[in-house]
Design goal:
It is built from 5 helices and 5 strands; from the N terminus they run βααβαβαβαβ. The protein is of the alpha/beta class and about 150 residues long. A 5-stranded parallel β-sheet has the order 1-2-3-4-5, with helices on one face. Helix 4 (about 80-95) links the parallel strand 3 and strand 4. Helix 4 crosses helix 5. The chain is globular and about 45 Å long. The two termini are about 25 Å apart. About 25% of the residues are buried.
Length: about 150
């Protein structure tokens, strides 16, 4: 695995403080993937929250790339957490046109500290145990989140 990953937020939405244009076109996505391969970047970082990023990536040739995506913040409206996790992962796989992916991260690691944290972890672990996901993790945005 390369030490760099290709971020794909701008594939699915306008993203970035200096971005005054729109998201990438399909041709620009294809070119970004071609250059990434050329530079031995073999990992793509995406997320359910990145608009149409997963769906647009799913239309590309992703052979040779490891895909990392992220589960959004747990909504207070979710009653059946295991079902919600299953639906989120299965929807991502469908959009990405993949049967398995390299990693799933929690976009909001604080969800693990909630009373539902164990259910979230166990629900994600089932996909890892089935070899649908190789790695589980969290996105960390500040050092104090590591605690």
């Amino acid at each position: 695995m390369s030490k760099l990953a290709l971020g794909s937020a701008q594939f699915g939405m306008q993203y970035g403080i200096t971005n005054t244009s729109t998201r990438f076109t399909d041709d620009e996505i294809k070119e970004a993937l071609r250059v990434a391969k050329l530079k031995n970047i073999d990992t793509i970082d995406t997320a359910i929250a990145y608009g149409e990023s997963e769906a647009r990536l799913g239309k590309q040739d992703l052979r040779g790339f490891k895909i990392i995506t992220k589960i959004p913040k747990l909504s207070k409206n979710v009653i059946d957490i295991e079902k919600w996790i299953t639906e989120e992962i299965e929807s991502s796989l469908l959009r990405l046109n993949k049967n398995k992916i390299h990693a799933i991260l929690l976009h909001h690691p604080s969800d693990l500290k909630k009373s539902e944290g164990k259910i979230i972890y166990e629900s994600l672990k089932k996909f890892k145990d089935q070899n649908i996901i190789s790695k589980l993790g969290v996105s960390i945005y500040s050092p104090n989140e590591l605690d």
